[in-house]
Amino acid sequence: MTDASDVTDSSTMTLMEAAPPTTMAEVHSWTLGSVDDLTQMRNGLETWLARVPDEDAEHGVDAHRVVLVASELATNALRHGSPPVRVRLLSDGRAATVDVVDHRPETPPVLAAGRRPGAGGFGLQLARRAARDIGWFRAGNGEKHVWARFA
Amino acid sequence: MGQHGDVRVEDEDSLWVMAGEIDAAVQARYEELLVDAAARADRRLVIDLSAVTFMDSGGLRLLYHAAEQSSEPPLLRGVTDRIVDLLELSGVAGLFAIDLAEPAT
């Protein structure tokens, strides 16, 4: 399968270390103990996103991509960040940010270009392409946040 | 314990029927089975996605195993817009033959 080589080289890069925009407030959050809790989080997120207005507007939030990225970031956190993991939905009424919190501040998220699907770093790369921007920060209380902003 | 997505293997390993939410939880349950099925199948793999309601890179990993092990691109059947978006964001659309789902209306 020669085409597969297109997606198997593996350059890595560092993710921007920054907090998300402070104009957004938490709308809801979900706590996950394992990958079996992902479904419940996604369904809940979809319900909340339906209430963010302006969805029909040109700059509206693509709910499916928000749910996809939340799923990717939460899966990463469950695999590498020691559960429980918290998924937070932030909004200013127009745009939305998904913020995923784990308890491994010493392991920065790794962005890997061209990794094979499911390999480390792939989900974050997908998130970077699907969201407007992504970043991460350490909260100082033993928490690590990885966030994605949609707009 | 709720199982929100699953995979059935039919036609002597060559037809995989996925349903529901195909994520890391489903990947954990089915990855080994599907790697073996992909290695055993002796004709083109067909993966039916028409009953899939959600897929992320956990599910993509399962599709990737099919592509890795076959001599011709696996056929994805019943592919929705959301799955096309996922394949394109991931840069792996070219590894598959894609048969789009009928429009909902």
Task: State the helicity of chain B in percent bands.
Answer: 25-40%
Class of chain B, according to the CATH hierarchy? Alpha Beta
Q: Oligomeric state of the chains?
A: heterodimer
Distance from N terminus to C terminus of chain B (CA atoms, Å) equals 34 Å
Tell me the number of strands of chain A. 7
Question: Briefly, what CATH class of chain A?
Answer: Alpha Beta
| Rg of Cα set of chain A | 15 Å
Any guess at the CATH architecture of chain A? 2-Layer Sandwich
| CATH superfamily grouping of chain B | STAS domain
| DSSP helical segment count of chain A | 3
- Largest interface, C-beta within 8 A: A-B, 29 and 32 residues
- The largest beta-sheet of chain A arranges its strands as 2-3-4-7-6
Count of the separate structural domains of chain B:
1
What would your notes on this structure say?
Chain A is α+β, with helices and mostly antiparallel strands and 151 residues long. Chain A has one domain (11-150): Histidine kinase-like ATPase, C-terminal domain (Heat Shock Protein 90), CATH 3.30.565.10. Chain A has three helices and seven strands. Chain A has helices at residues 38-49, 63-80, 122-130; strands at residues 11-14, 25-32, 85-91, 96-102, 110-113, 133-138, 144-150. In chain A, the strands form two sheets. Chain A has a five-stranded antiparallel β-sheet, covered by helices on one side. In chain A, a hairpin with a 4-residue loop joins strand 3 (85-91) and strand 4. The termini of chain A are far apart. The model of chain A is unreliable at 1-10 (pLDDT under 50). With 105 residues, chain B is α/β, with parallel strands linked by helices. Chain B has a single domain, classed as STAS domain (Transcription Regulator spoIIAA), CATH 3.30.750. In chain B, 38% of the residues lie in helices and 31% in strands. Chain B has helices at 24-40, 57-69, 81-90; strands at 5-10, 15-22, 46-55, 75-79, 97-100. A five-stranded mixed β-sheet of chain B has the order 1-2-3-4-5, covered by helices on one side. Chain B is globular and about 35 Å long. Chain B starts with a strand and ends in a 5-residue tail after the last strand. The mean pLDDT of chain B is 93.
